[in-house]
Amino acid sequence: MRILRFPSIAEPQFFGCVAAFVDSLAGELNAAAAALRRLEGQGKGRAFAYEMTLDQHRYGALIVIDRWSTVAGAFGPHLHLSGHQSILTEARERAAAAEDILNRANHMLDAAERYTTEAVEVCLLAFRTLETTFAEERAAADRYAKLGPMLPEDYKEARRIFLEDLAAR
After folding, report:
1. Predicted structure pTM score
2. Is 113 exposed, middle or buried (0-12, 13-18, 19+ CB in 10 A)?
3. How far apart are CA 122 and CA 111, in angstroms?
4. Which has fewest Cβ within 10 Å: 14, 16, 40, 158?
């Protein structure tokens, strides 16, 4: 990941990465949810294109979480934030919890014979749980986004680089 080539990052750069993370995770989960809704009620293998889309996004969410954990772990020990320090101190635990939730939902879905309403609802609940897990990250990203055109260049550059890192998966 290119962002890890930086010897250190400043607070605006870190929050640029936070914004890229929560936006990317939300995108993956929303796309997975949409694919699940299209598959609801169908048997496995009946809508292959939607199943491929679902797989791409549900496993893509795991990749986004893994990359976030790596970035937070690399810079966390050396970065002191003026606010939201728990984003750093709890990053590994939140990422591990999120991965566990997604893995359990994925195993349940893989073991099901059909995309039943119940199975779809369990997965959607898991996705919503991740929103809660990373609520502080979302709040911090939203706070920075309110700056609009006054966002620091360092923030925008780090956000762009982290998004490119995620896209290169």
Report:
1. 0.94
2. exposed
3. 13
4. 40
What is the DSSP secondary-structure string of 68-111?
HHHHHHHHGGG---SS-THHHHTHHHHHHHHHHHHHHHHHHHHH
pLDDT digits (tens, 9 = 90+) for 92-139: 999 999 999 999 999 999 999 999 999 999 999 999 999 999 999 999
Distance between alpha carbon 104 and the CA centroid of its chain, in Å? 16
129 Cβ contact partners less than 8 Å away, ≥ 6 residues apart: 101
How many residues comprise the chain? 169
> Where in the chain are the domains?
13-167
